[in-house]
Amino acid sequence: MNPQYAEFLAAYRVIARLAEVGALLSWDQETCMPPNAVSDRAEQGSTIATEIHAKITDPAFAGLVNGLLQDASLSDEERVNVREAKRDIDKAINVPVSLVERLSQAATFAHEAWKKARAAGDFSLFKDHLQLLIDLKKEEAVCMGHGNRPYACFLDDHEPGCTEAELDRLFTPLRERLPPLIREITRVKRRLRKGFYSHDFSEAAQKGLCEYISDEMGVPRDRSRLDTAVHPFSTSFGQNDVRRTVRYKTNNPFESLYSAMHENGHALYDLNIAPALAQTPAGSAISLGIHESQSRFWENIVGRSRAFFEAYLPDMRRFFKKQLNGLGPADLYALANEVKVSYIRTEADEVTYNMHVILRYDIERALFDGSLALKDAPAEWNRLFEQYLSLKVDRISNGILQDVHWSGASFGYFPTYALGTMAAAQLAAACDKACGGLDTVIREKRLAAIREWLTGNVHRFGRLKTAAQVLRDATGDSLNPEAFFSYIEKKYAGLYGL
């Protein structure tokens, strides 16, 4: 191996390991950190963030990378690693370490404030913390040369190369076609076995089912664990340590089941990136949109299919024998795919989900282009929610306080959920052809075939391919909403007799 390239990999490995430590601190804060530890955690987190920033912007490291950019002897994989490291350097070099430190600490305090505000239903407990994060992110955007359009900077962080113009192109058909479809479906009166939700589904039994389905999906227990959190998430500390979280409602086992399948999709992506890429710049997901396509694929395409209940209802009865008495696959399929306008994004059905995402896109873009003041954001949220989904928000915990993302300064993240939902439908159509019919594979409980197809076409590449390349190579087409509309229109026409 080229000695300079070997030196580069060794230096980057330290940066990657520090990032894993930072992720571990965040996971601990979300799951089990004592409330009074927040000040210490803020300092710990900022220490890690500033150390990573120092190593990425170290002139010696930058010089090494710039030299390798001119090295014609590098392989294609080596060139991608150097290119991705250069991208990281270019993003970090103009941001002063003092701003990195302030952002990290502010996010730690904001997260704890968000939890208190959400529990109390009081936006004022979070407002000043959120305003500080917005101001600091605007300052960061100025440093990055995006002072006039700060939101563009944040989109690129989560979905490299994505622009507001591209999102508007993709979201316009959703804005135009989803509301009338939602109205058409919700006018249909269906008889559902709603008595299902009157039963008690113990947390222990729900966790048992989640663990069983995780096993079926191929999430290895010796490289992952499942915990609880206020807001479900997954995170990775390397290819042998992926953490997933869910939350439980004792009257609705679907929430934990689909949270688990969603987070398992993320986990499988992180676990199945080619081992040779571990702790290199190319050793992580190429974009959050592609990452979300994996979680939405498993949660919706697989988990909400009729074939899934035909295959796994006998197993579900082992955990909920009394509660499932008298219910068949068709009953659970209908319950799991009920279309109804509801407040919570993470509980939304496939048809209404993207409108939740578009609302958040509209709000955060307005906060950063100056057309919306933060003090007016809760009311604007409520106005848009009623406009898009024809429902009045009843309380603020079901409105602007419901999501964790802004408390961590993750602005520009929400659009990737819609991008992932559209990509999942395209990938599903391709996988259906390649595997001889997804319904057949699911019905026969051969989930390994799906996992292996996704690993071969998506996971293993890490950042060796762009998101556009991954999707085009796997599906033969660029990202567009047509596969998504084809999927939901066919599925829900059957469910609702449209």
How much beta, percentage-wise? under 5%
Low-confidence stretches: none
Provide the structure class: mainly alpha
Task: Tell me the number of strands.
Answer: 3
**Integer tally of domains:** 2
Specify the overall morphology.
globular
Mean pLDDT: 96
The H-and-E topology, N to C, reads as HHHHHHHHHEEEHHHHHHHHHHH
Quickly name the level 1 CATH class of the largest domain.
Answer: Mainly Alpha
Strand order of the largest sheet: 1-3-2
Largest sheet: 3 strands, mixed
What is the overall number of helices?
A: 20
- Name the CATH architecture of the largest domain: Orthogonal Bundle
Structural features, described:
The chain has 20 helices and 3 strands. A 3-stranded mixed sheet has the order 1-3-2, with helices on both faces. A hairpin with a 5-residue loop joins strand 2 (234-236) and strand 3. It has helices at 3-31, 38-56, 59-69, 76-92, 97-120, 124-143, 150-158, 164-186, 203-217, 253-271, 288-302, 306-319, 329-336, 353-369, 377-389, 415-434, 438-443, 447-457, 467-475, 482-496; strands spanning 224-228, 234-236, 242-246. The longest helix is centred in the N-terminal third of the chain and has 29 residues, at 3-31. The protein has 498 residues and is mainly alpha-helical. Helix 1 packs antiparallel against helix 2 (38-56), helix 10 crosses helix 11 (288-302) and helix 14 (353-369) runs antiparallel to helix 16 (415-434). The chain folds into 2 domains: 3-148, no CATH class; 164-496, Neurolysin, domain 3.
